[in-house]
Structures are given as C-alpha cells and as structure tokens.
Amino acid sequence: MTIKKTILITGGAGFIGSHVVRRFVTNYPDYLIINADKLTYAGNLENLADIESKKNWLFEKTDIVDKQSVLELFKKYTFDGVIHLAAESHVDRSITGPDEFIFTNIVGTLNLLNAALASWKSSPAGKLFYHISTDEVYGSLGKEGLFTEETAYDPKSPYSASKASSDHLVRAYNHTFGIPVVISNCSNNYGPNQFPEKLIPLAINNIKIGKPIPVYGKGENIRDWLYVEDHASAIDLIFHEGKAGETYNIGGNNEWTNIDLIKLLCRIMDKKLKRPEGTSEMLITYVTDRPGHDLRYAIDSSKIQNELGWSPIPEFAEGLERTVDWYLANEQWLERVLSGDYGKYYDLMYSGR
Ligand code: NAD
Ligand code: TYD
C-alpha cells in the first residue's frame, strides 16, 4: 500500500498519546505512524497492546531531550506532520522536581522544532507541527469567566510554566521561521489508561482497595473534565482541518468541584462493587492543599465547535462509569503500573528488534 502520510506522534505510549495513536492507526490505514516515546514512568506500551499487530505503526524509543536522537529520527523518516504530546504532565511532580519539566517540556520541544525546521525548510507547504498543550497555561480563574484563545498566559505551576514556554517557542518558530504550526489547549482529561497519580484513577484505585481518598484543601477547586477519546477526536479534527497558525481551546463544558466529583465517583463505585451506599464516601480524607493550587479552570470551546464542528460525546456520569468499568476490568494493567512491572512489556516485545 502507498503511504499517504508519515506522522510522528511523540508521547504515544502515555495516557492521551496512546488514544491518539490508536485512533490514527485505526482510522488511517494508509498513514505510517511513528510513535516516539522515552517510556518514562508514565509511558506504557501495554496501552497499545490491542493494536500491536497493525502494520502501519512503529515504535521508536526516543528521548526528545537528546538532540542527536531527535535529529536521527528526522533523518530516518520523512515526516509530513508532527503531533507532539510527549511531556512531563503531573503538577504535583513539577512542585517536587521541576527540572525534568524544563528539560522535556521546553528543551524537548525546542529539539523537535529545530529538527522539523531543518527537515522542512526547503518545502514547508503541507507540513504541520501540532503542539498539544493545556488550559493550565492561562492560569487560574475566579468564580466567573472562561478561558478563550485570547486569554493572556499566566501560568502558576512549574508544569504550566513549562508548557506555556513551549507554546511560546512553537509560535515563535512559526512567526520567525515560517514552520506551519497549530496549538490546542485542552482541559483535564479522564478515561482508560490514565496513570493512577492523577485524581480520578487514584481515587478509583483507593476506593477499590479501601484506602483514604486524599482531597486537597477543602475540595472546592474546580476542573473542566473531558473524556480522553473526545480529546483524541478533537486532535484528529484539528490535525486535518485546523488552520495553520491558529490556536484551538478544547474543553468539556463540564465543571466540577473536586469534592462533588469524588462524591459522584464514590456513588458509582459503591454500585459497581455492590457495596452499601455511602461506603466509599467514608474514605474521603481532607489533606494539606497543593502549594499554589489553581482555583478554577474552565474552557470556552466555541471556536473548535463552530469552526470545525467538534463536540464532546459522553455525559460526564456516563464517561466516568465507562472509566470505572475499564479500571475494574483491567486490574492487571493497574497492578503492573503500580508495581512498576509494565516496563517488562517493552523488554518482552521490543528488545532485540
Ligand atoms: P502522560 O504523562 O500520561 O504521558 C506522557 C508521555 O510522554 C509518556 O508516554 C512519557 O513516556 C512520554 N515522555 C515523557 N518525557 C519524554 C521525553 N523526554 N522524551 C520522549 N517521551 C517522553 O501525559 P498525558 O496526560 O497523556 O498528556 C499528554 C500531553 O497532553 C502533554 O503534553 C500534556 O501537557 C497534555 N495535556 C494533558 C492533559 C491531561 O489532563 N492529562 C490535559 C491537557 C493537555
Ligand atoms: P490532577 O488530576 O493532578 O490534575 P491537575 O492538577 O492538572 O488539574 O488534579 C485534579 C484536581 O484534583 C486538582 O484540583 C488537584 C486535586 N487533587 C486532589 O484533591 N487529590 C489528589 O490526590 C490529586 C492527585 C489531585
């Protein structure tokens, strides 16, 4: 079969990246997808075990901070597009150890931009560097208002500052060197395959094993939750239909205080685990707040809805139920992630290839 496009997806073994790789591999059999990932603690090739046998994707173990490796990747393949998801992504880790966030999120993005520039400068037409970012670059909202594409950047954590910095670099490379770029800024994702250090999978696991559910501060912080496959569908649409040079905000129009979300999750878990109503709520434990904890994120996604016709699908309760079902049906995935054994999947499947 003739290959129509060769696309580099970075971070494709992570939570969102694995859903994007699966979507592209499945929906575009005439694309060749190169999944480049360092396989940090958050990268797990088992996330893609169900598409292991598909012939239109390859895995390249690559650290984007290593300039030489990135240049070699761009020599080995002629990429028509890059979808850049690789990042350090957990706010709490960025507070205890910011350095890795600066290396991967800023230097790693710079290395990819430089390699794309070198590879595309003679014929940039038709190429696209798509940078996946977060709504956290906009900072924190009060009780009112929504983040639009025009909201000024005001990042408050080392994570969001590193993502803001990478967004600026991507726009600067577009403006200065003419690389075609597009950026999307998305709200909090949830769904299958999320590493259990983030709120929802952490709470699901703790409820399952009867451990306290740590709620930071008073649980009054608000997040706008989006099902991960809705993010993947938005990325697909923006990659194919988005206008180069533009930014698109992606959100679920689905704001929840952390405590209300946890209470809903507790009710779903009681039902699924056939425990008396109220059992899981007893595990809620208020703990010391995260330093500099952003109060509220909420996205105005009218631009992508109106211009590209995107809309999110499952209702939150339904998406949450699907997520709980997935975690309960994939206990071994969770056990291997929690024990750190998931690295063995790479050794088994890929070493010696
Ligand atoms: P994740 O932490 O689950 O996955 C990140 C992936 O990047 C992992 O597979 C990891 O191995 C890889 N990686 C990390 N450092 C690397 C390096 N130096 N070289 C190569 N690969 C490396 O993250 P996620 O939640 O899937 O987020 C993916 C992207 O989406 C990130 O850019 C994040 O900022 C953005 N985003 C996430 C959310 C969310 O709610 N999770 C919301 C909006 C935007
Ligand atoms: P998280 O999933 O870490 O995403 P982000 O910080 O990027 O929004 O956290 C979501 C919200 O849940 C955030 O307000 C912090 C809060 N939180 C807790 O209350 N307890 C926890 O154990 C975690 C991980 C997060």
Calculate the mean pLDDT score and round it.
Answer: 96
The CATH superfamily of the domain at 5-191 and 225-253 and 297-314 is identified as: NAD(P)-binding Rossmann-like Domain
Tell me the major beta sheet. 7 strands, parallel
Strands, total number: 12
Rg, rounded, reads 20 Å
Descriptive terms for the model:
353 residues; alpha/beta; Rossmann fold; seven-stranded parallel beta sheet; 12 helices; 17% strand; binds nicotinamide-adenine-dinucleotide; binds thymidine-5'-diphosphate
Give a short summary of the structure.
The protein is of the alpha/beta class.
Give your account of this protein's structure.
The chain is an alpha/beta fold and 353 residues long. The protein has a domain at 5-191 and 225-253 and 297-314: Rossmann fold, CATH 3.40.50.720. Helices cover 42% and strands 17% of the residues. The chain has 12 helices and 12 strands. It has helices at 15-27, 67-76, 91-96, 99-120, 158-177, 199-209, 228-241, 258-272, 302-308, 316-329, 331-339, 343-350, and strands spanning 5-10, 31-37, 57-61, 81-84, 128-134, 181-186, 188-190, 213-216, 222-227, 247-250, 255-257, 284-287. A 7-stranded parallel β-sheet has the order 3-2-1-4-5-6-10, with helices on both faces. It has a 3-stranded mixed β-sheet with strand order 7-9-11. Strands 8-12 form a two-stranded parallel ribbon. Helix 5 links the parallel strand 5 and strand 6. Helix 2 packs parallel to helix 4 and helix 4 (99-120) runs parallel beside helix 5. The two termini are 23 Å apart. The model has no long low-confidence stretch (mean pLDDT 96). The site of nicotinamide-adenine-dinucleotide (NAD) has 31 residues, from helix 1, helix 4, strand 5 and strand 7.
